[in-house]
């Protein structure tokens, strides 16, 4: 008779309802000696890896020094003064991105507007450089390129998280987020309200707003809007529904309003997005 040894191997992903992450730009550059990038305020997160040389990042209250093998994060809506060294200017590989996951993931790397620089181990530099390069080689504006770049960014961040040994931080209200996200996923095609989402999560409307801002860096309404747009992208990719039907199935009152919101979120109208799928 065979002998069986009981065991359990399983994993529960508590972040299965997280919002999207998308690469907005990617590149590599060798700066001239003493070159100052700014002052500037960027609308997206920018993660840089210093391949060679050195430089500084000056914010309103501190100057941060960056050298070979360092990670540098520039957060959105903060005035910064990145400057390459005069004698040994930096060469950078970088990626820009936005999305409700962005703050969660950068926090997990130990990077923020107050702590924008992290040192990495020299033995990991070739791997990190290759991961940034993977994002770069997948560049392009077709939906397949966008997915490939974002997938490569997730892989890069996962590796950096593994090396840093950090875990996902949990801000106040984190315990209510999953119930709210599940309710949205189940009901986004209907005219759900913020009050209904708050009731499903078991907290007040104001507490839900604070929980979303603290954990996802977005409002409840904006999350619902972006969720609906992402769902509509799936329908557009199937190609057999008109815009009016796509709008209706994703909770929008009419095709005109849907098109306006789609362009605001995605940067192009849905007709152009669909046209890209066939090119």
State the gist of this model.
The chain contains 10 helices and 9 strands.
N- to C-terminal distance: 61 Å
Q: What low-confidence regions span 5 or more consecutive residues with pLDDT below 50? A: 1-19
CATH superfamily of the largest domain: Regulatory protein AraC
Q: Which quaternary structure do these chains form?
A: single chain
Number of strands: 9
Overall CATH architecture of the largest domain: Sandwich
What gross morphology would you assign? globular
Secondary structure tally, helices: 10
The radius of gyration computed from the alpha-carbon positions, rounded to a whole number of angstroms, is 21 Å
Describe the structure.
This protein is an alpha+beta fold. It folds into 2 domains: 22-164, Sandwich (Jelly Rolls), CATH 2.60.120.280; 174-277, Orthogonal Bundle (Arc Repressor Mutant, subunit A), CATH 1.10.10. Helices cover 44% and strands 18% of the residues. The protein has helices at residues 101-108, 125-137, 143-164, 174-187, 194-201, 205-216, 220-238, 243-249, 255-266, 270-277; strands at 22-30, 40-41, 45-52, 55-58, 63-66, 70-74, 79-84, 91-98, 117-119. The strands form 2 sheets. A 5-stranded antiparallel sheet has the order 1-8-3-6-9. A hairpin with a 4-residue loop joins strand 4 and strand 5. Helix 4 (174-187) packs across helix 6 (205-216) and helix 8 (243-249) crosses helix 9 (255-266). Mean pLDDT is 83; it is low at 1-19.
